[in-house]
Write a structure and sequence with these properties.
two-stranded antiparallel sheet
C-alpha cells in the first residue's frame, strides 16, 4: 500500500482517485488555494463531485489546501499534479518548499509553454521552476492518452501512456496505478507524448467544427446527418500536421500514432470542451461570442494553448505545413470566423 497525494480537485484530478483507491492505496485529494469552497461543498454532500456526477471513494481523504503541508510531509510515494496549465508556477512554488528529491511526480496537466521564445513541455517548465525553487533533482512522468475524467470515474476501460526518459520510474508508477479498467503503457518519448497531449486540443476544435464546415449550402439538418466525411478528412489532416509538428520539436512519429496522439485526438474530438467550442466556430461564431454566450465558465484548453504559443508558431512555421493549426490560431487569437481553404494537394 502506497501514500498518494493528488494536488488539484478538478475533474481529472478527482477521477484519478478511483484507480489509486481501488488498488488499496491511501489517497489524499487536496484542492488548490482557489478550491476551498468547492472542497467544502463536496464534503458536505458525502464526497459527491458535481463535475463527475458521482461520489468519490469513501477510503480517500478530501482536503483543503491548508492541509497540504501536513500531508506532503508524510511518507508520500507519488505526487499527482492535476492543476490547470496556468497553475504550474503556483504548484512549483508550493511543491518546492516541501518536495523530497526521491518522490516521483506524475503530471496530468496538458500544455506547452514558451520560455525565451522556445517551445517547452510542461514537464520541462515544471522541472525548471522546481530547480529555481530550491530542488536539486526532480523526477517527472507525464500522462497522455484517451481518458476522459467521467469515464475514469465510472471505471470505464481506459488506456494511457506514461512517459519518462527514465523507464524504470514509469514502470514503478504503472504498477502503482494500473487496474483492470485503467491500463498503462510506458514510453521514453516524453517530448512526443507531451506535445501530442497538448496540440490534440487544438485539432479537437478543428474536427469539432466539421459539421458546420461540411457544406456551404446544405441545411443544418443535412449537415448533422452527413458531416462524417468532413470529420474524417479533418482527422487525417490533423494527424499529418501533428506528425510534422511533433517531429519538429524532437518527438517521435510513432508517438503520434499511439495513445497520446491518435487515441487522445479521437476521444477528444468525439466529445469534450474543445470539440464543443469547435462546433460553435464551425457554424460561424467568433471565439469570443461562443465563449461568452455558451462556455463562459469553462476552460478551453485548445484556445489557451493557441493564445500561449500561437503567435510564435505563426513566426516560426510555414503556413503550408500547418494549415489547420494556423487557421485555428487566426480564429482564436484574432477573433476571426473560422474558414478553411479546401484545396487538393
Amino acid at each position: 500500500m502506497k501514500n498518494i497525494l493528488i494536488l488539484g480537485a478538478g475533474a481529472m484530478g478527482s477521477a484519478f482517485v478511483f484507480p489509486c483507491a481501488d488498488n488499496g492505496h491511501t489517497v489524499s485529494l487536496i484542492g488548490t488555494h482557489l478550491e476551498d469552497e468547492f472542497i467544502e461543498n463536496i464534503k458536505k454532500k458525502n464526497n459527491f463531485h458535481p463535475y463527475l456526477n458521482c461520489e468519490l471513494p469513501s477510503n480517500s481523504k478530501i482536503l483543503k489546501f491548508k492541509n497540504f503541508e501536513e500531508e506532503i510531509n508524510k511518507d508520500i510515494s507519488l505526487i499527482v499534479l492535476a492543476v490547470n496549465s496556468k497553475g504550474i508556477e503556483w504548484a512549483a512554488e508550493n511543491l518546492g518548499k516541501f518536495l523530497k528529491k526521491e518522490t516521483p511526480i506524475l503530471l496530468l496537466t496538458k500544455g506547452l509553454s514558451l520560455i525565451d521564445n522556445k517551445y517547452k513541455t510542461l514537464a520541462d517548465k515544471l522541472n525548471n521552476l522546481l530547480l529555481k525553487n530550491g530542488q536539486k533533482k526532480t523526477n517527472i512522468t507525464a500522462v497522455g492518452g484517451p481518458c476522459l475524467a467521467g469515464g475514469l470515474a465510472n471505471r470505464i476501460r481506459s488506456s494511457v501512456v506514461l512517459a519518462n526518459s527514465d523507464l524504470s520510474t514509469a514502470k514503478k508508477i504503472s504498477k502503482i496505478i494500473s487496474t483492470k479498467y485503467y491500463s498503462t503503457e510506458i514510453s521514453d518519448d516524453l517530448i512526443g507524448v507531451e506535445v501530442c497531449a497538448a496540440v490534440k486540443n487544438i485539432y479537437s476544435m478543428i474536427i469539432g467544427a466539421s459539421e458546420g464546415l461540411s457544406s456551404e449550402k446544405a441545411s443544418k439538418e443535412i449537415k448533422k446527418k452527413n458531416f462524417l466525411n468532413t470529420a474524417a478528412s479533418l482527422m487525417y489532416q490533423s494527424i499529418s500536421e501533428m506528425v510534422f509538428f511533433t517531429k519538429s520539436l524532437g518527438g517521435k512519429e510513432s508517438t503520434v500514432f499511439g495513445l497520446a496522439g491518435l487515441g487522445d485526438l479521437y476521444v477528444s474530438s468525439a466529445g469534450g470542451r474543445n470539440s464543443r467550442m469547435g462546433k460553435y466556430l464551425g457554424y460561424g461564431m467568433s471565439y469570443r461570442e461562443a465563449k461568452n454566450t455558451h462556455m463562459s465558465k469553462e476552460t478551453i484548453e485548445g484556445a489557451e494553448l493557441a493564445f500561449e504559443i500561437g503567435p510564435q508558431i505563426v513566426k516560426d512555421y510555414d503556413r503550408s505545413k500547418l494549415p489547420l493549426m494556423m487557421n485555428i490560431i487566426d480564429t482564436i487569437c484574432n477573433n476571426k470566423k473560422l474558414k478553411l481553404n479546401w484545396i487538393n494537394k
